[in-house]
Amino acid sequence: MFFLQLCTLCVLLEISLPNVWAKPPDKITKAKQQTAGKQESKKTADIAAIKEIKHKLADAKENFKESNVEVVKNTVKELKDSGFGNDEILEKNISFKHHNYEEMTWLLKDYSKKYHKIARLYDIGTSVQNRKLWVMEISNNPGKHEPGEPEFKFVANMHGDEAIGREMLLHIIKYLCKNYGVNRRVTNIVDTTRIHILPSMNPDGYEMEATFGHNRWKSSRTNANGVDLNRNFPDQFFPSTSGPPQPETRAVMRWIKSIPFVLSASLHSGALVANYPYDDNPSGQSVYSATPDDDVFRQLARSYSEAHPTMHLANAPWKCKDIPREHFIDGITNGAKWFTVSGGMQDYNYVHSNCFDVTLELGCQKFPNASELPEYWKENKEALLAFIEQVHTGVHGFVKDEDGGPISGARILVANRRHDVFSARDGDFWRLLVPGSYEITVSARGFEQETKTCTVLSNKAAALNFELKRMRMREPRRLMDDDTWPRARIPDGAGFESEEKRKVERTGNGEIDDDYDDTARRGSFYQGNSERVNDEFPVTRNYPHPK
């Protein structure tokens, strides 16, 4: 009776009773059951994976634009060949389009919030029409200069009608943010380098170009005041001919004075070449104008051109039928040898700060169709990463006193190179050099100078520290052959926080004006031995593409 009641209850509750009379399964049956169980588990896992892929595809379908169709069509192998390995994240929100000022601002703010642990957005000033000059800082410790970590910067869209560099920098920002902690190379770059990216130095000119195109009464190459910003910086050979410094120029000059940048690149378009200083010479003619670090600049320029799939080729593809083709050996050129530019930004970086700067021309097109941007990104992504890594070459170290305190403003002199750099607030310094053996002397006011030798290897910076002893007697008037010490405030690397920004804006204009008044002395001090190398680097055609 009890058993019958139990069976009735099980039926009602949809519970099956164990078959107590069934024989125990033999080995074959047991194996089949185990196999079936494994297959069921695998099937469940596969279903979960398929659902996950389905969601990813839905996201990709929703977010990818028509211009991204080639990216979607790529096979796994093609993606890997393009640099998307197993340890990278394929950006689902990638958007190959031209971003106007509002869209660019939204994108930068969005990424600074999403990736706030490594990204910080700040501005260095405003344009003539009051648009902010946004800079995205990417670092594992954003907002702070870490002693011993080099500072790097990218600048683009200096000319309003040159849009490729602007979009490439927006993509490198997204790429670094999304792949940090996933891709080993990206993680190492961000952990060891403080990167500053200014996507648009001339937002007013860009808006004019994007709105009105080429059919307009005023050039969008210049800023809103009609001034070419790449002719507006203090020149080492000639007085300024472009009038007083523009708001955008002053903002960048204050930026350079406030952070101890080591390496920089300015992205342009109109040609396909990596251009290095000097951009002009005392004669004003298109002849080679070598800096004291000509070998270093050639190495920096080649690091980009050789990482680019076509820039270094003798006959690189040329998309512009209406512009004569130019040929550059190894895809690099001395600026003045190509054509002279007075008041350029790259020479200003080198002459008036510690920063080595080159100009990267990314193609003959200036404002290509958005559908062509994926190809430009594919061509330049590896080269951009390789160029950032060049900041970790040469010599770096600290200058301290006998008590271990940092010495800021110490002069670092490399024998037979008439271009010195100076230590930052924490006593740290960086000096880019090509592989070789060097004799390096460090001096500071009130201290005895010290000389050491070191060997620089390729692709790795040599560490070299100095401990200076205080002078026991009255400091002589002349510590070295040249008694020229930096008059500018030592960069502290703090960045542009609101209080720091106001401080720089209050005190920086005098220093900037001094740079404009300093032309004659700088010209005689920095002129390199150009005649010796002038015939070694010919340019097949000096077509006047304005940098």
TrEMBL record:
One Pfam family for this entry, by name?
Peptidase_M14
Determine the domain of life of the protein's source.
Answer: Eukaryota
Q: Which residues form the Peptidase M14 domain?
A: 97-391
Q: Is Lipid biosynthesis given among the entry's keywords? A: no
Cofactor annotation = Zn(2+)
> What biological processes does GO assign it?
peptide metabolic process; protein processing
The record's InterPro entries line, in alphabetical order, gives:
CarboxyPept-like_regulatory, CARBOXYPEPT_ZN_1, CARBOXYPEPT_ZN_2, Peptidase_M14, Peptidase_M14_domain
Range of residues in the leader sequence: 1-22
The cellular component terms of Gene Ontology attached to this UniProt record, alphabetical and capped at eight, are:
extracellular space
- Keywords of this protein's UniProt record, alphabetized? Carboxypeptidase, Glycoprotein, Hydrolase, Metal-binding, Protease, Signal, Zinc
Q: Where is the active site?
A: 361 (proton donor/acceptor)
The GO terms this record gives for MF are:
metallocarboxypeptidase activity; zinc ion binding
Is Zinc included in the keywords of this UniProt record? yes
**Bias kind Basic and acidic residues: ranges:** 498-508
Q: Where is this region: Disordered?
A: 483-547
The entry assigns this protein to a family as follows: Belongs to the peptidase M14 family.
Name under which the protein is recorded: Carboxypeptidase D
What species does this protein belong to? Acropora cervicornis
